[in-house]
Amino acid sequence: MNRYQLTQMQITGYRRLFSIDMAMRPLSVMIGANGVGKTSILEVFSLLSASAQGHTQNILSKWGGIQDILTYDQAEKAGFKISIALPTANPLDYSLTLNLKGMSYEVGSESLTQVIGQNDTQRLKYIEANRSDITYWDEENNKLVRPTWAYSPFETSLFQIPKRSHTPEMLRQQLADISYYSAYALNVGYHAPIRLPQKMQPATHPGHNGEDLVSCLFYLRETDKARFEIIEDTLAVAFPNFERLDFPPVAAGTLAMTWKEKHFSKPLYLNQLSEGILRFLWLITLLYSPNLSAVTLIDEPEVSLHPQLLSILTDAMLEVSEHTQLIVATHSERLIRFLEPEQVLVMDEKEGLTQVRWADSLDLEAWLESYALDELWRMGRLGGRI
């Protein structure tokens, strides 16, 4: 599947994100105080992903219903609009509105369009829906048609229309493939899946809870030696005593993983490693996974990491952002020390609502001659609340 970059995101009526319009870049690291809206932006991407899979109703129910996601006292609908760059054609614009309807909701409006002329007035409409009035582009007959099946008002047209049309299906697959990872939710307890032996099976990422970390690293060692060596080299930079990873079998079709250090004759098993080492190992394996989705969301990657590891982590994030659009939420001022202003989104709050600004839109040039970004954050020069 081709991967295309999101270039613009507009959000209205979602929690504190009452009116947000922001450019999207290959690496977007959001920093701001608790409750200012960082996680809400990650949620919006998760909602769009769920809607592309036909799970809108499920995710809204999980979050307590549409009433709980609308801007308190100020909105009766939530709207989302994204623009997607295409390499050889004009961008795609996709918009979706979810309306409050009684104690439930409905898909109020939805559109997928593309400029086909020299100006914005000529657009090809792949999807044009307003409540029960729904049309979509029939690629075989080159015309707009209406659904001939029982149409659900709780799921998007993007999910429900036939999968034969190339452009809508490409967009649907890309949105459905968005992946969310939470470092702070990663279970690293003594009996956590990440510490236990795992099956010898193909795995191309370590799993949301580390349940495939051993399987993934062993699979990479056997099938993608260069990528595995990048991970080991990164670990050696982060932990100077590190030598290598090994995979001793513990039962038929089951592997453990050991961590060998220079000054010990015997290796350490995963259940002997510190929480910080485990989290860093999981993050680096995740970032260098071969099949990252087009958009990857990571919440609080700095959890339990020594500040010196953050420099190595940001280097890895910058490298992989050439292959996946990486959106990160952080509370760590030290993390942004190793980034450029064009990679940092400052999340602020005014009268209870979120404001978003790219750090390079602020007048920081003179300040950056004497201070790092994290110092400017602490000084309040980036705005926001500490």
Description:
- By secondary structure, this protein is an alpha+beta fold.
- It has an 8-stranded antiparallel sheet, with helices on one face. A 6-stranded mixed sheet has the order 10-17-18-3-19-20. It has a 3-stranded antiparallel sheet with strand order 11-14-13, with helices on one face.
- 27% of the residues lie in helices and 30% in strands.
- α1 runs antiparallel to α2, α5 (213-223) packs across α6 and α7 packs parallel to α8 (307-320).
- The protein folds into 2 domains: 6-178 and 343-366, Rossmann fold; 181-292 and 300-339, Rossmann fold (3-Layer(aba) Sandwich).
- The model has no long low-confidence stretch (mean pLDDT 92).
- The protein contains 11 helices and 20 strands.
Kindly summarize this structure in a few lines.
The chain is of the alpha+beta class and 386 residues long.
Give short descriptive properties of this protein:
386 residues; Rossmann fold; 8-stranded antiparallel β-sheet; globular; alpha+beta; 11 helices; 6-stranded mixed β-sheet; single chain; 2 domains
Give the helices and strands, then pairings.
Elements: E1 6-14, E2 17-23, E3 27-31, H1 38-52, H2 56-62, E4 77-84, E5 92-101, E6 104-115, E7 123-130, E8 133-138, E9 143-145, H3 157-160, H4 166-176, E10 179-182, E11 198-199, H5 213-223, H6 225-238, E12 242-246, E13 249-251, E14 254-255, E15 258-261, E16 268-269, H7 275-287, E17 295-299, H8 307-320, E18 325-330, H9 333-336, E19 344-350, E20 353-358, H10 365-368, H11 373-379
Parallel strand pairs: 3-18, 3-19, 10-17, 17-18
Antiparallel strand pairs: 1-2, 1-4, 4-5, 5-6, 6-7, 7-8, 8-9, 11-14, 12-15, 13-14, 15-16, 19-20
